[in-house]
């Protein structure tokens, strides 16, 4: 294989490296990966053909490569799903790894020169193939999952900051490949300079992995802390509900104990006094009565808590709940889902003036727990692509907690909204079957 053919093969492999994160991590809009790959290859063939046929100088070819990059990114925007920031991150990361591949080619050729019976171009082809295979494993089994999780959960601002590292690293490597690590520079530089630049490349790659892993770890820790905090709130609410129940039982016991005294008192009163006495007694009984939403104690206590909050804030609260004392879904799952939905509904109502309402419907139907929460809101929805963002300053994780706990096959979570009403719908499968 002559050097010209080797150059074509190396460029083709680098094109595959640049395409790999896009094709592996993103879903095409119309499921036509073959057509997208064909368009990308056609663009590459046009670029290479113009260089070969017209003998374009390296400076002019650099401009053509920039145009090719813009056209390829345009293909990425049109044919693939995902936010602009996610596509940009993957595209810049792909170029970063392609430049790392070029650096590795130069280093391997410099080291192996004179030790093997291969030309410079043949060494580059072999190293590029090995790098591309390893890179595919890295993208398929490590990068895809982490990038999808990061860009599904991070805010737009955080995603923009995440884009900074691969951009800066790409610039550093690009400058290095055209200065101290170019083929001409390697011929006159010593081993120390080459090893320094190789260490820089390795450090950039390691930092790339560490940054993504660290951000995910921080997010998981934050989500866990939020769920622990919510669990503490649930325990506190259950304790309060338990104390209220004890008080209620004690009050009923006292009323029963005093019932005979009430009868004797009524027998010795005239009609007007009896009416006044009975009205006072009724008022006392009403004060001790509590609203019962369902037979499930955990859900009932949670609904009582939010009903009291809604009453204090002047929000109309309606709950139509048909749950038995024991349903095949654990109390923690029930409380996290219902609690987060009600917390989001209360938060939306607090931001609204005028008539405000919350409507809760829960019932067990055909082996599934069906849940619907409707609430009034101000008509403003923050979105990052197709993902709805929290309006809280701390970027609340309520919806993320719901999605995380609804992880069984058959679980569903969906939202619908118009200008005045926000609706959240949840289906939870029978956990006893899992």
TrEMBL record:
Per its UniProt record, what InterPro entries does this chain match? HATPase_C_sf, NatK-like_C
Q: What Gene3D superfamilies is this protein classified in? A: Histidine kinase-like ATPase, C-terminal domain
Q: Which GO terms describe its molecular function?
A: identical protein binding; kinase activity
Domain named Sensor histidine kinase NatK-like C-terminal: which ranges? 333-428
Report the transmembrane regions from the record. Answer: 36-56, 62-80, 89-112, 118-139, 160-182, 194-216
Q: Which UniProt keywords apply?
A: Kinase, Membrane, Transferase, Transmembrane, Transmembrane helix
Q: What is this protein called?
A: Two-component system sensor histidine kinase
**Which organism does this sequence originate in?**
[Clostridium] clostridioforme 90A6
A Pfam family hit: HATPase_c_5
* PANTHER family xrefs: TWO-COMPONENT SENSOR HISTIDINE KINASE (PTHR40448)
